Predict the structure.
Amino acid sequence: MHTTKMKLLPLLFALSGAAQAAVLVIGHANVPKLDPATVQKIFTGKAIEVAGVAVTPVNASPGNGARGRFLQTYLNQDEEKYTAYWTVRRYIGKGAPPKELASAADVIAYVQANPGSVGYIEEGDLKPGLSLNVLARK
């Protein structure tokens, strides 16, 4: 019996890892690859240009699973901290939070149609044949 449990343990770890899909930062075809620090600067309003390309971030809507994982993975924040951050920035005149879109399909369509735009989706939402760049993956 003990050996059966030991054999199942790696399978359980593999399944739990599969459930946690990577979050991809995607960009219009004209946006270059990004490192995690630059992604953080873009989504916190501290960078508006990368390698000579003006960038415009877009967020998934609050409550979206990709948004929660993105905030945690790339910005090391939760929804409450991120909202508070942008509340203060708006109050002191340092900008407004990125536009929010309802679904991964909306984010993809927006990024494809708008030069310089940067968004994020779950890895499973990336379909072949899309004209966009995968800028970062975590």
